[in-house]
């Protein structure tokens, strides 16, 4: 059963205050990090916004690399570096740190959907690292790689899978 905090506060007398977030599993042992409901909600909102920016940055970086390969203009290299430094890397960092805080607040690490989600996040990190290396190599060499067009939607597919896993929790 969910734990319910003591008496209801005056500002929310119409609804019970849960000590655990509403989507947290029923737990017999406390989580490693027991966040208040408000802190959990803010961290979760930050996590969703950062993850969305991360995915958008990866898709945009793939598109910029594809345009660079098609046009061969050296100005694209600066845009690639700026996109990595200003969007992709900060958003991935915020997403990982906030996701780690949410994970520490979660008590049941045995559920399969969580392992699948973490595997998809690891795949996103591998893809980000690969894109960054391709951008660096492409800036140094005039020979464009031919794989950008085929892989630029990869993060969207992973993102859809992650959202489905988190919302449905199929296993």
UniProtKB/TrEMBL annotation:
Its cofactor is heme b. It is a multi-pass membrane protein. It catalyses: protoporphyrinogen IX + 3 A = protoporphyrin IX + 3 AH2. InterPro entries: HemJ-like (IPR005265). One of its GO terms (cellular component) is plasma membrane. GO terms for biological process: protoporphyrinogen IX biosynthetic process. The chain crosses the membrane at residues 43-66, 87-107, 113-132, 153-170. Pathway: Porphyrin-containing compound metabolism; protoporphyrin-IX biosynthesis; protoporphyrin-IX from protoporphyrinogen-IX: step 1/1. It comes from the Bacteria. It is found in: Cell membrane. Keywords: Cell membrane, Heme, Iron, Membrane, Metal-binding, Oxidoreductase, Transmembrane, Transmembrane helix. One of its GO terms (molecular function) is oxidoreductase activity. PANTHER family: PROTOPORPHYRINOGEN IX OXIDASE, UPF0093 MEMBRANE PROTEIN SLR1790. Belongs to the HemJ family. This is Protoporphyrinogen IX oxidase. It comes from uncultured Alphaproteobacteria bacterium.
């Amino acid at each position: 059963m969910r734990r319910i905090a003591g008496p209801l506060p005056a500002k929310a007398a119409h609804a019970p205050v849960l000590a655990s977030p509403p989507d947290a599993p029923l737990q017999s042992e406390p989580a490693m990090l027991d966040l208040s409901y408000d802190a959990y909600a803010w961290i979760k909102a930050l996590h969703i916004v950062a993850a969305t920016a991360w995915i958008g940055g990866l898709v945009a970086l793939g598109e910029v690399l594809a345009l660079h390969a098609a046009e061969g203009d050296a100005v694209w290299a600066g845009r690639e570096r700026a996109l990595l430094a200003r969007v992709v890397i900060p958003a991935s960092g915020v997403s990982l740190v906030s996701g780690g805080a949410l994970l520490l607040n979660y008590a049941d690490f045995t559920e399969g959907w969580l392992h699948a989600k973490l595997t998809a996040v690891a795949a996103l990190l591998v893809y980000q690292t690969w894109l960054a290396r391709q951008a660096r190599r492409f800036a140094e060499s005039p020979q464009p790689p031919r794989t950008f067009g085929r892989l630029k939607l990869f993060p969207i597919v992973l993102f859809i899978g992650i959202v489905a896993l988190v919302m449905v929790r199929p296993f």
